[in-house]
Amino acid sequence: MSIKIGIPRALLYYEFYPLWITFFELLGAEVVISSRTNKQIVESGVQHTVDEACIPVKLFHGHVVDLRDKVDYIFVPRLRSICKGEYICPKFCGLPEMVRHSIKDLPTLIDITIDCIKSNRDLKNAVFAAGNFLTEDRDLITTAFQTAYIAYKEHKMILKKQLFPPFKRKKIMVLGHPYTLYDSYLNMDLLQKLEACDTSILTPEMLPKPVISHYAQNFDGQLYWSFAKKLIGTVLYLKDTKSVDGVIYISTFGCGVDSVVAHLVEKIIRRDTTLPFMLITLDEHTGEAGINTRIEAFIDMLKWRDSDENHISSHG
Ligand code: SF4
Asked: What's the CATH number where 142 sits?
């Protein structure tokens, strides 16, 4: 019987899942992904974390509890940096410790440390450390990771090909962290609701990384955080290319990064463009009716602009 490795469907699962699923499967493990976010997972996450934690971290705990009795190991990497010269939100650094101290009776955690701040070479050690939970064959681990990396890149290419189907009327950039944009329970199907309103959605994941990096360089200041660089680079791209009709930023209550970045994004949009902008902040208490009303009002405003642009406020 193969070893079961659980991967929580939360946080950077949404960015890297093709990589780690393929990697562990090629090493012979059975990979179990936690259930899609649901009411029980939210409640369990809230119960196992402090009130001050952001909702994505609470959800991560809920997903770990969902896997607890189903697997032999749970993959909870300690992320310090995922890109040379950039840091990630400090909450990713303490994930294994937070989870261990908050949730009882856990299986062994695969708590490798990923730190690419100096170079991607350090990633190699992390990959071997993860692979060693299943095998000591270094060649096998290397081959598995190379194949997994190709799967990850292919997944990225598919996302980029989704860019703007031509038949939709309005184009909206939806900004936010991948785990807020792609967890449809957390964001209450926001992307699907926008698409149902005859709009095309663009997210930062659909833009090529070199394009984002190029535009991020134009920012007047130092961008240390990977998330900040991605979001600011995307907004500066929008400013130059004028490729969308409006921008929605989905933030989460208690997010330290968003408390700075959402403000900067809004400032750039208000100052340098005429794009309508709307900030939506989510937490575990957010009501769906309120979100629906705001989306409908935003779409209506975009449509009114077509006929009466000079009289409509650019404020969402
Ligand atoms: S970036 Fe914000 S939402 Fe994400 S883990 Fe850090 S504090 Fe939470």
From this structure: 3.40.50
